[in-house]
Amino acid sequence: MDPARIAYERHGRGRPLVLLHGLGDRRQSWTDVMHRLVDAYDVISVDLPGFGSTPAPMLDEPYDVYSMTEDVRGFCELHGLERPHLAGNSLGGSIALELAAGGAAGSVTVFSPAGFSDRAARLGMRTVGHLANAAARLPTHLKEQLAETPPARAAARVALRGDPSSPGAKATRFGVQGLEPGAPYVRMVPRIAEYTFVQRPVECPVTIVWGDRDRTLLPSSAVHAYARVPNARMVSLLGSGHIPMADDPVAVAEHIRWTCRSADRGHARRRPR
């Protein structure tokens, strides 16, 4: 897609740092993290194609992890972001790792990236895809009513938050807005279930973080991630679920900062005198 159509916000000064959200999310999920990084970095959070304010590709156009990777690469080139730091959650984490494997990142910090699940987890994702496809065909008012039922709200808290009983998790819901046949979420879920990150060299500093209470992409996936990205610094984020920016934005920001600093030190050493 035309990278000029990708919506974003940008704050701070310093070396560029691009934040990539997960499937069905939007750039605002990074707000609490962004505020903790703008003192040292030029922080850009984007709406991935089909989410937030960025339109989706047409139904006959490619739409998967690889096409989104090329879209983000084009966005970086358009805005003059040469090998920026990247941070991503879930789908956004996969895109960040793909860009890093292609030499387009200065550093990568990813939180529960897709592409490392075992067979059982992939079956679960395919099941979610079938349910989303079925739900998309229901009338809007009925979908909204179902999403507000106590069982659906409880399931959303368990799936997405580290501590489902915390006050901050009370407002967690499964989003149904835009859940229609052919909607971006419905199109992308089966693509995520099929996607595997293929091992190859990733030359820049990498941190892979998994919330120990992630019930969407299980923490056991970290074993596969380390096997395929053996130079990665592996971190378990205690008490966090699949969206750690909501559960612990302070720790998320600090892990991003650590990885960026590691890369910046190496960048400074290589700089010609």
UniProtKB/TrEMBL annotation:
It comes from the Bacteria. The keyword Cell wall biogenesis/degradation does not apply. InterPro entries: AB_hydrolase_1, AB_hydrolase_fold. PANTHER family: ALPHA/BETA-HYDROLASES SUPERFAMILY PROTEIN, LIPASE-RELATED. Coiled coil: none annotated. It comes from Nocardiopsis kunsanensis. Keywords: Hydrolase. This is Hydrolase. The keyword Iron does not apply. One of its GO terms (molecular function) is hydrolase activity. Residues 17-254 form the AB hydrolase-1 domain. Pfam families: Abhydrolase_6 (PF12697).
